[in-house]
Design a protein that fits this description.
The structure is a homotetramer of 351-residue chains. Helices cover 30% and strands 27% of the residues of chain A. By secondary structure, chain A is α/β, with parallel strands linked by helices. Chain A is globular. Chains in contact: A-B, A-C, A-D, B-C, B-D, C-D. At the A-B interface, helix 10 of A face helix 10 of B.
């Protein structure tokens, strides 16, 4: 089969032919119909500090996907050949305190698909049955079903605040920020203010329902407050990880408001805890991952009922063979979600 | 001034000329621009058992209104002549445990405007400054501003559940049920199923965003579950007070779901607490009134930002002199909210 | 091995010699060191309507226990021979919505140990690994470890309200009611008022920390309110299932208070929903079972740290051979928890 | 009357004779029976940067007190001569969003007694009726009643977490930290670990119920984790404001845990938001003040029912004339709460 992998400890990826993976006793083999590229994949491609520390090549990338089960291990209980599925990318231990109390996304023994084990930028991927999520093909086509994993991040982050009627700031309009705008719009938010540094993304923010956008290279908290008729914001989602945006989050939120931190800053940030947090009586939630499976159900419902439409955010679809162009496009900031279609590579190779 | 009042302890109301009310030290006098009729007013008109027990004629009716302050008592601190206002209808003691902990709507010493003291179906009404709510005329015209009081009931009821992605049942499509459909639609509900006994109301339910409606004279919980692809409902709002609907609420909700009881049954109801509640691990919230002022802020935001549009529910506007026809229309079930315009009566009397 | 079982569809139980159970692939075999009798066991013994509908003899009773694993099935992953364990009594499907979102106790495909499959009133019991809970022998002796299952009911029920400083009513002083008093006392409740019909239980209520007790055969809501200096109660736990107590719960709670329903009434109950619930703006939680495993962790912590001491509630310990006397004593109401020691039966048989 | 005041913009305080304050229309005059010294008073005495920025001498200090009303302004409605009272120290506007939605403690127009207007280190203090809290002399003597204000800070902070069975860290054993230990102990916490830099305070921590204490000059997060059998802590309250303790809070808390920030650091602090917050999925509440009046009710209940006993924390009582010694003692760290008795000064002056 064809696969996109990190072949060695250096920048870049390669398209290679590999044997179809063998399924373990507890695993299923999925023929990948769609897989989407995440910011994490860019880090691995670029081979930055984080990637050098975490990744052990060779490794097939990809943790967001949808496809069809074509084989099941002998101890698999419920999944069946022919099932149309996606997967939670975090493979967790199942027996620790967090796994057993609804917080599997905080399991300290997590393995991530496409990070610690071979992923889905390939014609086939083997995954444990325990992370399989059943899709309904009549409701979600593969290019949407693959987005459930990253969309779930936004669904989980947004579940940390009650938005009806409120003024909501969303700082950072990468895919999860843009997903969040769509959810906030569908959740009765009164006014949605978005910021980013790139015009392409601010355009998508408006398309997803932002009432107004701010160019973060030029403006910060003051602009947000002004757009809210001089009032500070009720809830601010920090989705960029940029230190300046973190500061803007704490400055623009009102006394007694709520800040949700999702974007991951590359280094420690200085915070004026007295003025920015305590005297404001803030509630802060730091959010990572998705609840397994509570978030997946809500994700599915929001998409299947058409409450949030993700199609405007799929800015490109291509075969595995175009991976290099896809990664470049994404790195340029002029794309949102790019969907890979491993079958195309297969078809071309066959032709 | 002209006013619609209950003149004596018998069915019916009368349009009479009365002196403009004198304002107390803590009160303001409001020139009423719009006032809307509530189900409570129908009870008083009809002079049913509840009304006979509660009402002491003579009494000017009306507790939902918007208008302009024309006079202020000498101890009034913040309200001013010219302010465009509405009012919380429940005048509470301000010093009991409930009043001092954000639950004023549960004050046991409450007096209600148009129930225990003269109300707003008149050219002028005197109200304590403590219940005055400031409106913004550029954002809410009087016929919408007067609806904040009853719409607030729905806003408060809906705040008792997290609706994003969920299947929501709304049983009873009187005004508060219909408001609730609008809010649920704006709150990301995945599927909204509504029931009522009257075709006119089911039509409005669809207009407000219900995905499907059920004729409660013919069908109950089974129909709701079938419309939800065989699954029980996540959250059910009982807004009718009909014993059959209360039963439907508990039958149609899923294990671990949530029932919100708002409709007031006329007599005790038999409940199978073991099967309908305990083995289902239900959370039940019984809801009445609105939080002062948390609900009012959210109400204002939802209306000012256009998140919920109430105009389709104003099925009639008329002068005080048409009150008899308005009450009949409302009693017939072929109306939703009717807005009275006291100024018209005044203008005609002047002409 | 010796076991206490329901041999045929009639009142009574029998002590019989049976083969040690065979362990399935996913199961472990536990040598039972302590097992405790629950009200459910009394229903099965008495062969009442519920038991006749639910139970298919022959069946070994018992779903509360502690013991040591002596054998593991070939697919068991984590449990090991020698582990000192108890078990969640509800064996659930693991794949339904409730199982996958932290509400396994509401799985509609639940099988209960000692109800749908052979239980722990025996020298050995076979249970699926999925319900095994690890105990620490240095912290919890078997007679306390077996109580984790029923104590968990109280822990879960009490987790539905914030008790610090509040006046708490606990209606019904069976084991779960008495556990609840202990937890409420340890949770900062300001005043704990308990009621029951039996003097023996009211004595234990005081021993567990009730500030005052009420004889429910003589007094109801008025007495509770009087004991609270004329104020209604903040939170009321209904743990008896008696219709009169359910009425007392709704009458004695304050406006804006909270009622938790745990006791299971034998038939439908009439409720004045308007006066008792809606005009009081009540929150009602109907509670059954325990959260798997969140409640178990909290249960373990409360017991291991000595926050709640259950020893006063173990009113009898005996061998399996004394089961008849134990069941009689429990049925008489002059006992709380009775712990069976299957080893004694074995020892005597061996002697 | 005698009063302790900041006479001019420099370090130190003075005991002076002043006229008894005149009561405004909305105010009451209270004869002070007990007043307690707060850390804020030390800042003002010492005339540090914060005090220089905030305080406008001359100013009578003191915002914690209990006493008897001896005079009422002509617009006072409920308070009466002879009432035994304390007061919320934050005098708020009453009409802003925060004041009207149960968050008066976040009103941006707050005036603090003894900071922006003359306080209670005097024989008499005038306060607005709106902040008066009624005490019951049969239940709370003046030296305890005066502590309701600072104890309320701990009650409010602790209300941000559910503690039953959990391991709780309390970093900083000043008065509010020590109050917190008492509340945590009464709230079912499984294990309470406290840290401070001073042996005197660590001794009081143990007396209030800490299971183990850590000398923060020598040890940090590792020691706390070790004392918790190698597990990270469930909830950590940072009550010191020391940057090292803030770091310890985030390091010692478990994944998915909760940090409450109450101590006010003097300058910005660097936080590793990625590792310390986001990858830990933390909830952080920054807390200041008390809810008016929800916290006061709970405070009263906890004290009146004897759930928390504050007497061990009153390490000194003296007359106003001993203020200099009292301030020194407090600054030395070898005291917890010091209660001033203005009547003694008066008695001596009279003698």
């Amino acid at each position: 089969m064809w696969a996109v992998r990190k072949g060695r400890a250096a920048a870049g990826l390669e398209l290679v032919e590999l044997p179809v993976p063998t399924v373990g006793d507890d695993e299923v083999l999925v023929r990948v119909e769609a897989a989407s590229i995440c910011g994490t994949d860019l880090h691995i491609h670029r081979w930055d500090e984080w990637a050098q520390r975490r990744i052990r090549p060779p490794l097939v990338l990809g943790h967001e996907f949808a496809g069809t089960i074509v084989e099941t291990g002998r101890l698999v209980r419920h999944a069946q050949e022919g099932d149309y599925v996606s997967a939670e990318s975090h493979i967790t231990c199942g027996v620790c305190f967090n796994c057993r109390t609804g917080r599997a996304h905080m399991c300290e023994r997590t393995q991530i698909l496409g990070v610690e084990r071979d992923g889905a930028f390939a014609e086939y991927v083997a995954v444990p049955e325990s992370v399989i999520w059943q899709n309904d093909r009549t409701k979600l086509p593969p290019e949407i079903a693959t987005l459930q994993e990253p969309f779930g991040n936004a669904v989980f982050a947004l579940a940390h605040a009650d938005l009806a009627g409120k003024t909501v700031g969303i700082l950072g309009c990468g895919p999860v920020g843009l997903f969040s705008i769509g959810i906030a719009r569908a959740s009765g938010a009164g006014r949605i203010l978005a910021s980013d540094t790139r015009p392409f993304r601010l355009g998508l923010a408006q398309r997803m329902g932002a009432d107004a956008v701010v160019d973060a290279t030029l403006e910060g908290a003051d602009a947000l407050v002004e757009l809210n008729e001089g009032e500070h914001l009720d809830v601010v989602f920090e989705m960029s990880g940029a230190p300046a945006a973190i500061e803007t989050a704490f400055e623009s939120v009102r006394h007694g408001g709520r800040v949700i931190l999702f974007g991951i800053p590359a280094r420690p940030v200085e915070l004026d805890i007295a003025e920015a947090l305590i005297f404001k009586n803030l509630d802060v939630s730091a959010v990572s991952g998705r609840q397994v499976w509570a978030t997946w159900y809500r994700t599915q419902w929001l998409l299947e009922h058409g409450i949030v439409d993700l199609r405007p955010l799929i800015t490109e679809e291509c075969g595995l063979e175009d991976f290099e162009r896809a990664f470049e496009l994404l790195a340029s900031g002029d794309a949102c979600k790019i969907v890979l279609r491993p079958e195309r590579a297969a078809a071309e190779a066959a032709a």
